[in-house]
Specification:
The chain has 25 helices and 29 strands. By secondary structure, it is an alpha+beta fold.
C-alpha cells in the first residue's frame, strides 16, 4: 500500500514554490504580451498594407495624368523692327531675351532661337520651336536708329518680326490659378538653398519624413491643445498639396506620410523638388492664385525665374510659410524681415557667406508693377479663351500644351491701362462732385465702369483691351457689353449722305451732299409710325436754324442729324450701319442719334470703314494655335469686306477731324494731343469717344453697370481717356509715325469761307478746311462771290442774258 507523505517545508521552500508560480505567471504574461504584440504587428502591417495599397492606387491614378496641367501659353503679337525706327541693338536684344532666346552668355532656350549682339549689330536666328520660320536676319543700328536689315540669304529687308513674347497662361480650372512650369535645372541654386534652409534643411538626406520634427510638433500640439505645428518635410508638403485637403487632422497626417513614402519611392530628390517648386502657393495677384516659383518670379519681379538674384530667391522662399501675410505689395516690412530670416538660415546651412547675406539684406524690395491688367491683359485673355472655345470646341486647352499666338501689343496694353487709370480718377472726381450736390457722401454711390479697345485700323488686330476698372474686383468684360451707342453712331448718317453724292442724288433741294450742305436744326416732331418723336439737342436752343453739315457733326447736333437721316431714308442709314457691324440698327428717327446697342468691340470694328478706306475689318485676337512642338494646329485669317467707297470714307474722316479741331472734343487738343486725328464724342445714358489716327483706332466707353444715366458728357469723360491713351501711344516707336490722312483719289481739300460757302481767299479769313468729292466743291472765291451777289441784287436772282453782257461789264467797272 503506497503511502502519501506530506512534508513540511521551511519558509524558503514556500517562497520557492510561490516564486515558481510567479515566474510561470510572468512567463505566460510575457507570452501573451508577445502574442498580442505579434497580433498587433500583424494587424498593423495589414492595416498599413491596406492603406499603403489604397493610397498607392490613389497615387497611381493621379500620376497617370501629368502632375500639373500643361498650361496653355498665351503669346503677344510679334514685335516688328522697321528701317528708320528708333531702336538700338541693345533694345532688340532685350526683346529677344524676354521672348526666351538664348545668347552666348547663357540662359534662354536655343530651341526657340539664338542671338548674338556685337556693338550696334545684332544677328538673330530663330530655332525649330520659333513662331516664325527658321530664317534669320542681321539688324544694323546707328545712333539709336535701325539703318539696315539683311536676311540670311543676303536680301535687304524693310522690316523683321521678332519672336512673340509670353503674356501669361490660361488659368487652370474654376479656382483661377496660374502656373508657369519650370524644370529643376531652370531653378537658381540660391532658390533651392533658400527653400531648403527655411523649410526643410535635411531634404536631400532624409527619406521623406523627419521623425524628430514630427514628434516635436506633436508634443507641442498636445501640450498647447492646438493643432498649429507643422513638422512637414518638402515631400510631405507636396503630398498634401497634390493629394489631400488642407485641414489639420491626425489621420490626414498619417495618410500624408503614406503618400510621402510613395513619392520618395518613385522619384529622386531633384524631381520631388521640381514638383514642389511648381506646386507651392505663393500668394494672390488680382483674382488669380500664384502657384509655383515660375509664376511668382514673373508676378513679383517681372522676370524669368532663372534671372532671380539672391535677395529675390530669399524673398520667394520666405513667402511660402504664410503667403497672404507675406504679401510684398501689402506688407513690405513683413516680407523684408522674413527675407532676412531666410538669408540668416542660408548662412547657418553654409549655402552663403555672412558677407553675401549682408549685401542681399541691403538690397531694396524692387517689385514689378502690381497691375495685372497692364501686364497680363486678363480681359483680353478671357476673350481669347472664349474665341478658342467658339472656334475649336470645348476641349481641354491646358492639357493639350498649346501655344496660342494673339494680336496683343504688351507695350500698348500697358499704355492703355495707365491711361484708363489716370482718366478714371478724373471721372471719379466729376461723379463725386455730381453726387455732392445731391447730398450723397462717398461710398453711398457706385462709380462708373470703363472699357477701352485699341486696334490697327488697317488689319483689325486688337492691340490692347481694357474691359473694366480692375479685373481683381470684377471680371465682367465691358468691352463686349452691349450699350446704346449715342452720338458715335452719327458718322454713319453723314457717310450715307456722301454715298448719295456718288450718283448725284439731290439732298434737301441743295444738290449733292457736301460738308457745306445746310441742315435744319430747328425743333420739330419727327412723327414715325404714327407716333410723335420730339428730341432735343444736348444743349437746348443750341444752333437753331440752318447749319452747315461740318458744324452739325462737329458740335453733335441731334436735330440736324435726324433731319439729314430723314431726307436720306432711315432704312438706308440703318442698312449701312448693319453692314459696318452695328447689327441692331433699325430704320427709325432715334437710330440717327444712337439709341440702338452695340459693344465697344463692335464699334471699333465699325469705325474701320472710316479709318481703312471703306473696308470693314472684324476685330481679331487669335492669330495661330501651335502644339508643344511648334507645329501649326490652326491659323486664323481676318475677315474683311468693302462697305464704303474709299472717297466716302475719306470725306467722313474729314468731317470727324473737325470734332477734335473745333468741335465737342476740342478739349483733347488742349490736353496736349496734337497729332492728326478724327473722332466723335457720344453721350446718351453712357459716354463714348471713338477716334483714330493714321495708324491706330481707339474706342473708349464709360458708363454705369446698372444702366442708369451717367449724366456726364463723352467730351468730359471718355474723350480725355482717349486723348491720354493716344498721347502716350505715339511716344512708342511702333506708333510714332502718325501722318495726315491721305485724300482718296477723286477727292480734294479746300479752304472755304464760312459765311458764303465759297473758296476762301485773303479777303475772307474766317474759313474752314473741308474735303469735297471732285466736282461738288465751290469753284468761285469768296471775293468773286461778293461781286456775283451784288450783281444778282442789281439784276435779280437770275444772271443777265448774254446780250446784256457788255452793259453788265460797264456797270461793274463803274462800281469797282
Amino acid at each position: 500500500m503506497a503511502l502519501k507523505l506530506k512534508l513540511r517545508g521551511n519558509g524558503g521552500g514556500q517562497t520557492g514554490g510561490g516564486g515558481r508560480k510567479q515566474v510561470g505567471f510572468l512567463r505566460r504574461l510575457l507570452h501573451l504580451a508577445l502574442l498580442c504584440a505579434l497580433i498587433a504587428l500583424l494587424l498593423g502591417a495589414a492595416v498599413f498594407g491596406y492603406y499603403y495599397n489604397k493610397y498607392q492606387k490613389l497615387v497611381d491614378e493621379r500620376l497617370r495624368q501629368p502632375i500639373f496641367a500643361n498650361t496653355a501659353q498665351i503669346y503677344a503679337a510679334p514685335y516688328e523692327v522697321r528701317i528708320g525706327q528708333q531702336m538700338t541693338a541693345g533694345a532688340i536684344a532685350v526683346e529677344l531675351r524676354n521672348a526666351g532666346y538664348a545668347s552666348g552668355s547663357g540662359g534662354g532656350n536655343p530651341q526657340l532661337g539664338t542671338y548674338a549682339q556685337r556693338g550696334s549689330n545684332i544677328r538673330i536666328k530663330p530655332g525649330p520651336l520659333s513662331y516664325h520660320s527658321t530664317d534669320g536676319a542681321t539688324i544694323d543700328t546707328a545712333g539709336g536708329t535701325v539703318v539696315s536689315i539683311t536676311a540670311e540669304n543676303g536680301s535687304a529687308l524693310r522690316a523683321y518680326e521678332l519672336e512673340p513674347q509670353l503674356i501669361t497662361s490660361l488659368s487652370s480650372g474654376q479656382n483661377r490659378m496660374k502656373r508657369r512650369m519650370v524644370t529643376y535645372d531652370e531653378i537658381p541654386a540660391h532658390l533651392v538653398q533658400a527653400v531648403t534652409a527655411i523649410e526643410d534643411r535635411r531634404f536631400f538626406e532624409h527619406g521623406g519624413v523627419n521623425y524628430y520634427r514630427i514628434g516635436e510638433a506633436l508634443f507641442k500640439d498636445v501640450t498647447t491643445g492646438r493643432k498649429m505645428q507643422g513638422g512637414s518635410t518638402l515631400t510631405m508638403q507636396l503630398a498634401r498639396g497634390l493629394f489631400l485637403s488642407p485641414e489639420k487632422r491626425y489621420k490626414r497626417k498619417l495618410i500624408e506620410i503614406l503618400i510621402t513614402f510613395q513619392l520618395e519611392a518613385r522619384f529622386n530628390k531633384q524631381q520631388i523638388f521640381e514638383m514642389y517648386a511648381n506646386q507651392i502657393n505663393l500668394g494672390q495677384r488680382g483674382s488669380f492664385a500664384i502657384n509655383g516659383v515660375g509664376e511668382a518670379a514673373q508676378s513679383y519681379f517681372g522676370k524669368d525665374v532663372k534671372r532671380l538674384d539672391l535677395a529675390e530667391c530669399a524673398m520667394l522662399a520666405g513667402i511660402i510659410q504664410r503667403p497672404n501675410y507675406f504679401n510684398p505689395y501689402r506688407h513690405p516690412d513683413h516680407v523684408m524681415e522674413r527675407r532676412n530670416v531666410v538669408l540668416d538660415a542660408m548662412v547657418d546651412t553654409g549655402a552663403i557667406s555672412q558677407n553675401e547675406a549682408e549685401r542681399a539684406k541691403a538690397e531694396p524690395l524692387t517689385l514689378a508693377p502690381q497691375n495685372v491688367d497692364a501686364s497680363e491683359a486678363p480681359y483680353f485673355v478671357d476673350l481669347v479663351h472664349d474665341q478658342l472655345v467658339q472656334r475649336m470646341g470645348d476641349q481641354d486647352f491646358n492639357n493639350a500644351s498649346l501655344r496660342i499666338y494673339t494680336s496683343l501689343d504688351p507695350e500698348l496694353q500697358r499704355v492703355a491701362t495707365e491711361a484708363v487709370e489716370e482718366g478714371m480718377r478724373g471721372v471719379d472726381a466729376l461723379v463725386a462732385n455730381q453726387h455732392r450736390h445731391r447730398g450723397l457722401a462717398a461710398g453711398t454711390y457706385t462709380l462708373p465702369q470703363v472699357a477701352l479697345i485699341a486696334l490697327n485700323p488697317h488689319t483689325g488686330q486688337v492691340l490692347a483691351l481694357v474691359g473694366g476698372r480692375n479685373y481683381g474686383t470684377s471680371q465682367l468684360n465691358h468691352a463686349v457689353a452691349s450699350r446704346p451707342t449715342g452720338s458715335i453712331f452719327k458718322p454713319f448718317v453723314y457717310a450715307t449722305a456722301y454715298n448719295t453724292s456718288l450718283n448725284g442724288t439731290d439732298v434737301g433741294g441743295q444738290g449733292v451732299f457736301t460738308a457745306m450742305t445746310k441742315l435744319n436744326d430747328d425743333p420739330q416732331d419727327f412723327v414715325f409710325d404714327g407716333k410723335s418723336y420730339t428730341p432735343q439737342n444736348f444743349e437746348k436752343g443750341e444752333y437753331p436754324g440752318m447749319v452747315p453739315a461740318y458744324e452739325a457733326i462737329a458740335h453733335s447736333l441731334n436735330l440736324a442729324t435726324i433731319n439729314l437721316a430723314q431726307q436720306l431714308g432711315y432704312d438706308t442709314v440703318a442698312a449701312l450701319a448693319r453692314e459696318s457691324g452695328v447689327v441692331s440698327a433699325r430704320g427709325t428717327p432715334s437710330m440717327a442719334i444712337g439709341t440702338y446697342n452695340a459693344t465697344p468691340l463692335d464699334m471699333a470694328g465699325a469705325y474701320t470703314v472710316f479709318a481703312n478706306n471703306g473696308v470693314h475689318l472684324n476685330p481679331w485676337m487669335l492669330a495661330s494655335v501651335r502644339n508643344a512642338n511648334g507645329d501649326v494646329v490652326t491659323d486664323f485669317s481676318p475677315e474683311a469686306r468693302q462697305v464704303l467707297d474709299a472717297r466716302v470714307s475719306y470725306l467722313t474722316t474729314s468731317l470727324l477731324q473737325g470734332v477734335l479741331n473745333f468741335g465737342t472734343a476740342a478739349g483733347v487738343r488742349g490736353r496736349g494731343f496734337t497729332a492728326p486725328a478724327a473722332g466723335k464724342t457720344g453721350t446718351d445714358h453712357d459716354a463714348w469717344f471713338a477716334g483714330y489716327t493714321s495708324n491706330l483706332l481707339c474706342i473708349v466707353w464709360v458708363g454705369n453697370d446698372d444702366y442708369t444715366d451717367i449724366k456726364l458728357q463723352g467730351a468730359e469723360t471718355a474723350a480725355p481717356i482717349w486723348g491720354e491713351f493716344m498721347k502716350r501711344a505715339i511716344t512708342l516707336p511702333q506708333y510714332s509715325d502718325v501722318h495726315e490722312f491721305t485724300p482718296a483719289d477723286g477727292t480734294h481739300l479746300a479752304r472755304v469761307d464760312k459765311a458764303t460757302g465759297l473758296l476762301a481767299d485773303d479777303s475772307c479769313p474766317n474759313d474752314v478746311t473741308v474735303a469735297f468729292l471732285d466736282g461738288t466743291g465751290p469753284t468761285e472765291t469768296c471775293s468773286e462771290g461778293e461781286h456775283t451777289g451784288l450783281m444778282q441784287r442789281i439784276f435779280g436772282e437770275k444772271s443777265p442774258p448774254d446780250a446784256d453782257a457788255e452793259k453788265k461789264k460797264g456797270l461793274l467797272q463803274r462800281i469797282f
